[in-house]
TrEMBL record, chains A, B:
<keyword id="KW-0238">DNA-binding</keyword>
<dbReference type="InterPro" id="IPR047057">
    <property type="entry name" value="MerR_fam"/>
</dbReference>
<dbReference type="GO" id="GO:0003677">
    <property type="term" value="F:DNA binding"/>
</dbReference>
<dbReference type="InterPro" id="IPR000551">
    <property type="entry name" value="MerR-type_HTH_dom"/>
</dbReference>
<feature type="domain" description="HTH merR-type">
    <location>
        <begin position="1"/>
        <end position="71"/>
    </location>
</feature>
<dbReference type="GO" id="GO:0003700">
    <property type="term" value="F:DNA-binding transcription factor activity"/>
</dbReference>
<dbReference type="InterPro" id="IPR009061">
    <property type="entry name" value="DNA-bd_dom_put_sf"/>
</dbReference>
<protein>
    <submittedName>
        <fullName>DNA-binding transcriptional MerR regulator</fullName>
    </submittedName>
</protein>
<dbReference type="Pfam" id="PF13411">
    <property type="entry name" value="MerR_1"/>
</dbReference>
């Protein structure tokens, strides 16, 4: 059991921020040890680290964080649903133009086609994903952009990407210990969604450069630049 | 050979925008057919599509686009270097805090360690990537963020991601026909760097949901939500 000042030191958050989180219902109160004093334990520290990560890495508003921590605390919410609540709260979120009455008709039509293609792809893959998963619209958005630039998108084009995504996700879900505390499991899920996505992006660019060097580099006087 | 009005129709860009691109040196002048008239061919259309994609998808400033199209037009610039010029121009770009005298010392030190780890990783993988590739800093940034949240990053943690990135990049480089026109090859490179990166992100989230459903869904009353 530690005082709020030590909780502040160990979490890297100011006492003001910790008190704000308690007022907002993001962190449970400590055990009262006097009229104005309370003590905190490891679970408070874990929770603070999760809240901090949701704020700083997930860039989530307080209301979204409150929903997530309420789900963490509710043992009736299973792990899969907990992951869904977390992932669906994380941006970027896309507003489909087919639901915007001011959008041009051709864009709305392209969007509807793209979204149908996404739904057909997920069905074809046999992936268990809810109809309201925000990543469906995220994917539909890229289909629209690719087609507007003259790149058709077919299932065959996507195969290397679906394989890579599935391999990485399999690794990530496998890393969640069956008996992991719920706070830590959600934390790991957030980190793999946001930060390992960036890892994958950076590695993708590095791999492109490597493979371009192998394929085209021999002819290229600028290769060693 | 077509007039500027048809070039506008086919590229989806206004005549004003096309004239602006010509003034800025992003598009070659048409063949003069009179004092104030000129005609354009398929190469102009291809170039316009590339410039539009660099602006809209790559979000690049005019000066960066000018460098890229100058490299496209210079046959002394090999394909590998052309890809490098394009990829290095595309953001996000990271400003390493170890080069910022105002950055806190501990952050600068964490950054230096992360960047050394990135360099060691690339060396270990045997990837041919220049020391100034911006994706090195992009990756270092995520290492710093992960470690600040208490997630150590080791080579073993990264293996599934490096494999996935290499598989996808191999597919992408393989899609570039050996005899593809340079304009189209750069266009394809841009699209795979920016838009297929988003495809991969969206598929990653969908795959996470699927694998979470398979692993945890059976226990979960909320699964079908």
């Amino acid at each position: 059991m530690v005082k709020i000042s030590e909780l502040s030191d160990r979490s890297g958050l100011t006492i003001q921020t910790i008190k704000f989180y308690i007022r907002e219902g993001l962190l449970p109160k400590g055990a009262a040890t006097g009229a104005t004093r309370a003590e905190y334990d490891e679970r408070h520290l874990d929770r603070l680290r999760l809240v901090r990560a949701l704020r700083e890495v997930g860039d989530l508003p307080v209301a979204a964080i409150r929903r997530i921590v309420a789900a963490v605390d509710d043992d009736d919410v299973g792990m899969h649903r907990l992951f869904g609540i977390t992932q669906y709260a994380i941006g970027p979120h896309v507003d489909p133009p087919d639901q915007d009455p001011g959008a041009p008709e051709d864009l709305a039509a392209q969007w509807r086609t793209a979204r149908q293609d996404v739904d057909a792809l997920i069905c074809e893959l046999g992936w268990r994903v809810t109809a309201r998963a925000p990543a469906r619209d995220l994917l539909a958005q890229t289909f629209v952009a690719l087609r507007r630039l003259g790149f058709p998108v077919t299932l065959a084009d996507l195969l290397p990407y679906t394989r890579a995504a599935a391999a990485v996700a399999e690794h990530e879900i496998g890393m969640v210990a069956a008996d992991a505390p719920r706070t830590r499991a959600v934390h790991a899920m957030l980190v793999s969604t946001v930060l390992y996505e960036q890892v994958l992006t950076a590695l993708h660019r590095l791999a492109q450069e490597d493979l371009s060097a192998r394929r085209f580099g021999a002819d290229d006087p600028g290769e060693t630049n």
